[in-house]
Amino acid sequence: MSAKDQLVIFDTTLRDGEQSPGATMTKAEKLRIAKALEKLRVDVIEAGFAIASQGDFEAVKSIAETIKESTVCSLARALDNDIDRAAEAIRPAAKGRIHTFIATSPIHMKHKLQMEPDEVIAQAVRAVTRARGHVDDVEFSCEDAGRSELDFLCRIIEAAIDAGARTINIPDTVGYAIPEQFGETIHQLLNRIPNADKAVFSVHCHNDLGLAVANSLAAVTAGARQVECTINGLGERAGNASLEEIVMAVRTRQDLFNVDTRIDTQHIVPASRLVSTITGFPVQPNKAIVGANAFAHESGIHQDGVLKHRETYEIMCAQDVGWHTNSLVLGKHSGRNAFRTRLQELGIQFETESELNEAFTRFKALADLKHEIFDEDLQAIASDTHQSDEEGFYELVCMQVCSETGVVPKASLTLKVEGREHKVEAEGSGPVDATFKAIESLVDSGCNLQLYSVNNITSGTDAQGEVTVRLERGGRIVNGVGADTDIIIASAKAYIEALNLISRGGTRQHPQGADV
Question: Can you give the residue ranges of the Pyruvate carboxyltransferase domain (predicted)?
Fold first, then answer.
């Protein structure tokens, strides 16, 4: 593939995706996803916002030290400290990029920045120049470009390119654009900016009106050659453009697009499942490409057509995006080596032998409960093992729940708090309600339960249930995830994990304007 024909895929799951309320990830979880993105052959991985917190800095640095095939990028406002911190974080990377940005819309310049347009241009130039002092690969973004004046965009972009920016990103920060209009904006910029040929033009679209993918593809048709997107469309508010939809739209409609990507599409579904498991954001069944129903056919007419000739009702092959990986891989008679090998194939690694041993013990226990162990089960086991390594204030020791027709459900639990065991019990309107009330009778967290969601990890009545619990306290939102073949135990695990996340306090803060 020649350079002019390549569409660069810039994945921001670990930065913008993590800004979804409750989706904050640990360093180990970020590293697992980064490895999956590298296996997917993503061109650029935006690993985080280095100045946001010490934890974010360490995560970006760890990814920079580990990833070799993809460019590792850190976001930075157009401020000296931001840029220097980003440069420090990506220094170990084989290929590193600094992504700096400043707002360019009248409403942002007036009310947020409180700066005149000429001052904004001067600061953008200073930022790009400083970033180029650290790395050759610098990207500049015009925050809220979708509501910016075209003449001003032309001025600031020309100046940024002259200062050394080699990628220019046009974000639809608030999801305001319409495809035809957004495509025309990209066309105008490419034709009106004298030095536009010296940079790759990129787009970063939000999904507030459900048009993120459509706007991105319109921009590609108009000449954009980088798309910023996330796995499962994860992101702040209504999310970002979905990586899997962008990639497969371009790949499927080669009759319309004169570009293609480097993405190894067979790893799309595994990457989707990993992100969903780690963040606790389930994939809706009717989600394009990666939803459980994406290749399912209920209608008799459709079924008949597919059986006679697949392409009558399927424009893509399920195996091409990784659905074949759902096949049985392990059972209760599988040994440690087979277990380790399959984990490595899935990109799951443990830092110590004791962690692997703990995961193997969990695997054997699960295999005694269900005959077929799928890749999704292994992802859940890995997540449980990594979570257990995190120092938790609360721990579930054992529990007993009584649910009987005509009798008020009752839950009895033994919880460990700072090493001491406490027995608690409560009644509720159902077994889950009783379980949560029993936990709260001891911890009195003051949290508001915002979401309780149950999904089966695999098919069958013996499948593990994956529960997501979203708690809010003092404006801070966290997601706890628990998995077990017993849905009540999974619920308790999820609630306790969320409480542990809340108890660790606010370790991550996003500077104003992080959402480009």
Answer: 7-269
CA–CA separation, 190 vs 193, rounded Å?
6
d(CA 257, CA 8): 14
Q: Which residues contact 270 (CB under 8 A, 6 or more apart)?
A: 36, 322, 325, 346, 347, 375
Instruction: Extract the annotated binding site.
Output: 16, 204, 206, 240
Residue 511 makes CB contacts below 8 A (sequence gap 6+) with 49, 51, 52, 77, 82
In whole angstroms, give the CA distance from residue 509 to residue 361.
Answer: 36
Q: Measure the CA–CA gap between 234 and 274, rounded to whole angstroms.
A: 13
Q: Exposed, middle or buried by CB within 10 Å (0-12, 13-18, 19+), for 378?
A: buried
d(CA 325, CA 375): 7
The whole-angstrom separation of Cα 83 and Cα 365 is 48
Contact 60, 98 (CB under 8 A): no
Helix, coil or strand: residue 137: coil
pLDDT tens across 7-18, in order?
A: 999 999 999 999
Contact 225, 201 (CB under 8 A): yes
CA distances to 23, 179, 218, 231, 253 from 221, rounded to whole Å, are 32, 10, 5, 22, 12
Q: What are phi and psi of 166, to 5 degrees?
A: -110, -10
pLDDT digits (tens, 9 = 90+) for 82-127: 999 999 999 999 999 999 999 999 999 999 999 999 999 999 999 9
Q: Work out whether strand 407-417 and strand 420-427 pair parallel, antiparallel, or are unpaired.
A: antiparallel
Distance, first Cα to last Cα, the chain: 30
Binding residues for Mn(2+) are: 16, 204, 206, 240
- In which residue are the tokens 């708690």 written? 471
Residue bearing tokens 């309320």: 21
Could you tell me the domains of the chain? Answer: 5-279 (3.20.20.70), 300-384 (no CATH), 394-504 (3.30.160.270)
**Per-residue confidence band for 389, with pLDDT thresholds at 50, 70 and 90:** low
Secondary structure (3-state) at 337: helix
Identity (one letter) of the amino acid at 330? Answer: L
What would the two tokens of residue 220 be?
């590609």
Cβ count within 10 A of residue 360:
19
Total residue length of the chain = 516
Is pLDDT above 80 for 459?
no
What tokens were used for 38? 């590298």
